[in-house]
UniProtKB/TrEMBL annotation:
Protein name listed in UniProt: Zinc-binding dehydrogenase
Organism: Nocardioides panacisoli
Pfam families recorded: ADH_N, ADH_zinc_N
Coiled-coil region(s): none
Annotated ranges, domain Enoyl reductase (ER): 13-320
Source organism superkingdom: Bacteria
Length: 322
């Protein structure tokens, strides 16, 4: 079958190991099923895989892609949950130390067909297109868990989203607004601040700018560059939820005194569960909120999408269709 896969790694030139060509049909173990892919979205994770991060040499060639929407074996329209837990794991699969994402241990979604555990299938409502549904399982699910599970936010709360241009950040803004939150967002870039307002942010600020009032929670994916501002922006008892460190994970000053004196909570968040993905899908169906698509390309032009993401020339999700 046709697939987009990693054949080798390069940290300097990740696209050099990217191949578009033929790969064997996926194996389907007991309890698994096959989804015929209609749309699959690109993540930074796919570029990291081409750099050899999170993927072992002996796993090559590996079909890339974490996110997909398509048809199950009975022809039903479905969304694929990307987190594969070990067969004996029970409960929240994001806590399984042996979990993996599709394309790490098992072939990914940039292909005609992908094999997944039956329990990883979520029904797709007709109101969502395949392209929109394919954006949800990684960036949007991460944002949903940050806001509503780890952050415990509810209608009327105020949230600050750092780095408005990112894939997770744009999902945080749109979902926060739809969930009845007051949404503040920062960006270094004026054009991105304007787009954040269009997406649903109530107020936008330059990165590091002092806010007029403290917030209930901050959503962090930037890390080093925005950490101090995040801590300073929280009200006493506020929560900082972190799922990424785009600008780097090391801090000169973790602001520990602020954390204990103001009784702040710092909470990590990673991906989400199958049930959270089902709730996210229902939330989009109910509210009309939709992922922002940067561009849609036929899967046989996937190289152009990878190049755009590598150059940072993106606002919203890149989707490959079949
Ligand atoms: N834990 C999980 O499950 C999970 C899932 C998905 C992603 N992630 C992680 O989350 C992070 C965000 O990924 P993403 O794809 O959403 O976004 P991204 O494209 O990596 O960038 C996020 C934003 O960071 C801001 N930024 C970058 N460098 C900065 C700097 N020096 N100073 C200030 N702001 C800076 C930029 O905002 P502006 O240009 O608007 O200022 C950028 O739009 C990544 O580290 C990714 O690995 C984690």
């Amino acid at each position: 079958m046709f697939a987009v896969f990693a054949e080798s790694f390069s940290s300097d030139d990740p696209l050099s190991g990217l191949v578009l060509g033929e790969q064997p049909e996926p194996e389907v173990p007991d309890g698994w099923t096959t989804v015929t892919v209609k749309a699959a979205s690109l993540n930074h994770h796919d570029l990291w895989s081409l750099r050899g991060v999170g993927l072992k040499e002996e796993a090559l060639p590996m079909i890339l892609g974490c996110d997909a929407a398509g048809h199950d074996e009975d022809g039903n329209e479905v969304v694929v949950h990307a987190v594969v837990s070990s067969p004996d794991w029970r409960g929240d699969e994001t806590f399984d130390p042996r979990r993996s994402l599709l394309s790490e241990r098992h072939p990914g979604t940039f292909a005609e067909r992908v094999a997944v555990p039956r329990s990883n299938i979520v029904p797709k409502p007709a109101s969502l297109s395949f392209e929109e549904a394919a954006c949800l399982p990684t960036a949007w699910l991460t944002a949903y868990r940050m806001l509503f599970t780890q952050g415990g936010l509810k209608a009327g709360d105020t949230v600050l989203v750092q780095g408005a241009g990112g894939g997770v950040a744009t999902a945080l803004i749109a979902l926060g607004r739809a969930g009845g939150l007051r949404v503040l967002a920062t960006s270094r870039d004026e054009a991105k601040r304007a787009k954040a307002l269009e997406l649903g942010a109530h107020e936008v600020y330059e990165s590091g700018e002092r806010l007029p009032a403290k917030v209930d929670a901050v959503m962090e994916t930037v890390g080093r560059a925005t950490w101090a501002h995040s801590i300073r922006s929280l009200r006493p008892g506020g929560k900082l939820v972190i799922s990424g460190t785009t600008s780097g994970p090391k801090l000169d000053d973790a602001m520990l005194s602020h954390i204990f004196f103001l009784q702040l909570s710092v909470i990590g968040s990673t991906m989400g569960t199958r049930d959270e993905l089902a709730s996210l899908v229902t939330m989009l169906d109910a509210t009309g909120v939709r992922p922002l698509l940067d561009r849609t390309l036929p899967m046989d032009q996937a190289r152009d999408g990878f190049a755009a993401l590598a150059e940072g020339d993106v606002f919203g999700k890149i989707v490959f269709t079949r």
